[in-house]
Write a structure and sequence with these properties.
Layout lengths: L2 H6 L1 E2 H12 L3 E4 L6 H9 L4 E4 L3 H15 L3 E5 L3 H5 L1 H9 L4 E7 L18 H9 L2 E3 L6 H13 L5 E7 H4 L2 E2 L20 H10 L3 E5 L6 H14 L3 E3 L14 E4 L3 H4 L3 H4 L2 E5 L5 H7 L8 E5 L13 E4 L2 H7 L10 H19 L1 H14 L4 E3 L4 H9 L8 E2 L10 H11 L5 E6 H4 L6 H6 L4 E7 L4 H11 L12 H8 L2 E4 L6 H9 L5 E6 L7
Parallel strand pairs: 2-3, 2-4, 4-5, 5-7, 6-7, 9-10, 9-12, 10-11, 12-13, 13-14, 15-16, 15-17, 17-18, 18-20, 19-20
Antiparallel strand pairs: 1-8
Length: 540
């Protein structure tokens, strides 16, 4: 082989990274290890791409997930095999549960050692099988000649429909192998674009003849294009709009037709769904989690279900009309020829006022906190959450005004996402204020990622709501068993901890000071932690 030919060859790692750049990737998240150095060397040589070094693979996975949730494009996670891949399994599974596009590339031991117990470093019995069992879309890149093509295909799989995580492992003997340059085709557009499959005329007729239509909107409609189409349809029909937790932001909180979130007790128990004669459910699986927590939603027989994933149609509720396509395309296709005239907006306004007053009577301190936070962070802020007490209440009552501005792990219900997820969201949307909502317990799952935020000089605000407890679990225990056990926490000095990492740290002992402290944090270079002491009884 001539020197010229050798120079023309690339390692599989270089092909992977070149293909990722062609697909549109800008940043990867991970921790370099001896088994992933070929990928990192390729990143070092590739202009326009960078790697963020996290402090744990779980944190890196949450960063990639936050990037994807905020941007709508696949987040990129890089790990070594064995412990690195295993540490990342929780965020990858969380992405699967909430249909978040994510690409996880992991090294794997050489092919000759797979499935053996010969003592190779980082060996697992069946690493591919673990991820295949968890998320379904898991592949081994075993053919160097197909490296670029397999990366592009994985990107397309991640975008969907349905969107979600894709795991690709690369054995070491393949990753470092040299091969001839390969043509890298750009990824094909998602097959769900402007064409909607299903009886559109039947759906349009149902909506046209409805006396009390209602739109029920999930995460599949929580993007700018679908949001604009949703407003056109809602205003044309003069139909109230109810969102799921993942749908928060698809319609501005202050829109005259917005009823609120279905997680809010006052909304869930109201007569709006009971009285609706036609419901159009958009971009939601009408999930079992809603069933399990609240009992069946009182949806009418005339249920129109629009989703990009055909498997979602009728999965949890019987459907009169099923439509498969993007939320934006389906909503636009159902626009009425002329606007309806109903007194819906006035009824919605009166209901929202009553619902807010009822919530305030039920949990006055929590509602006061959320109203203060809303004023403090402003309508442009992206808020990143995990399953802490304040975030759960935020799902019901925190105002959100724009798509992809309320990021919450609804189905898997993880702890530890908020801080690293906020890092990913800020890198995806640097022009937006980004605020992490953390419980004291959940913050300690990933507090080490403060070092990552400081190293990147990211201007994010980390709110730590401290009740010295796994408070949500403690409340469930008390309701079910009359006592709590194992939920009390001994916490560090959070302000001193933040400062030890090089971040700003302040404590807010007076709720009236919170807007000033948050605003100051939003204007401060680098990350700022704001500890907010709360009582265990604030949730009512």
């Amino acid at each position: 082989m001539s020197d010229d030919t050798t120079q023309a060859e690339q390692t599989v790692g270089e092909l992977l990274v070149a293909a990722l750049k062609e697909c549109g990737a800008r940043v990867g998240f991970g921790i370099p290890g001896v088994h992933s150095l070929a990928m990192y060397e390729a990143f070092r040589q590739q202009e326009g791409l960078s790697c963020v070094t996290a402090r744990s693979e779980q944190g890196a996975g949450y960063m990639a997930e936050g990037y994807a949730r905020a941007s709508g494009t696949p987040g990129l996670l890089l790990t070594i095999g064995g412990p690195g891949a295993a540490n990342a399994l929780t965020p990858v599974a969380d992405a699967y549960a909430d249909s978040v596009p994510l690409l996880h590339f992991s090294s794997e031991i050489p092919r000759d050692y797979l499935g053996t117990r010969r003592g190779y470093l980082h060996a697992m019995r069946d690493q591919l099988g673990v991820f295949r069992a968890a998320i379904g879309k898991a592949h081994c890149l075993a053919d160097p000649q197909q490296a670029a093509q397999q990366v592009v295909t994985a990107w397309e799989e991640s975008v969907g429909p349905p969107p979600g995580p894709v795991y690709v492992e690369v054995p070491l003997d393949v990753l470092e192998q040299r091969t001839a340059p390969q043509e890298i085709r750009p990824p094909r557009p998602s097959p769900v674009t402007r064409e909607v499959q299903g009886p559109l005329d039947a759906a349009a007729d149902l909506l046209k003849s409805a006396r009390r239509p209602l739109l029920y909107v999930g995460g599949g409609a929580n993007n700018p294009e679908a949001s604009a189409a949703l407003l056109r349809l809602a205003e044309g029909l003069q139909a109230p709009v109810l969102t799921t937790t993942k749908g928060k932001g698809a319609i501005p909180d202050d829109h005259p037709l917005h009823l609120g979130c279905s997680w809010a007790a006052e909304v869930r128990k109201s007569d709006w769904l009971k009285e609706a004669d036609v419901v159009l459910a958009v971009g939601t699986r009408l999930s079992r989690r809603t069933h399990d927590l609240f009992g069946n939603l009182p949806l009418p027989a005339n249920l129109i279900h629009l989703d990009a994933d055909p498997e979602m149609i009728g999965m949890n509720y019987p459907t009169r009309v099923g439509l498969v396509g993007s939320a934006a395309a389906g909503l636009d296709a159902l626009l009425p020829e002329r606007s309806a005239s109903r007194d819906t907006a006035e009824r919605v306004r009166a209901f929202r006022d009553e619902a807010r007053q009822a919530a305030r009577r039920r949990a006055p301190r929590m509602l006061a906190l959320l109203e203060t936070l809303a004023a403090a962070i402003g309508p442009e802020a992206i808020s990143m959450h995990d399953l802490n007490t304040v975030s759960v209440w935020s799902g019901s009552y925190l105002p959100v005004f724009k798509p992809r501005h309320f990021l919450f792990p609804m189905e898997f219900g993880v702890l530890g996402l908020s801080l690293p997820g906020a890092i990913g969201a800020k890198l995806a949307r640097p022009e937006k204020p980004v605020v992490a909502f953390c419980g004291d317990g959940s913050f300690l799952f990933s507090c080490q990622e403060l070092a990552t935020a400081v190293q990147l000089s990211l201007q994010i605000v980390i709110l730590v709501f401290n009740d010295n407890s796994y408070g949500s679990v403690a409340r469930f225990q008390k309701r079910r068993y009359g006592a709590e056990y194992g939920t009390a926490l001994h916490n560090p000095d959070f302000v001193a901890l933040a400062r030890s990492f090089g971040a700003q740290g302040v404590r807010c002992d007076d709720l009236a000071r919170l807007p000033t402290l948050v605003q100051r944090a939003l204007e401060t270079e680098g990350p700022t932690l704001v500890e907010v002491p709360i009582g265990t009884d604030w949730a009512g």
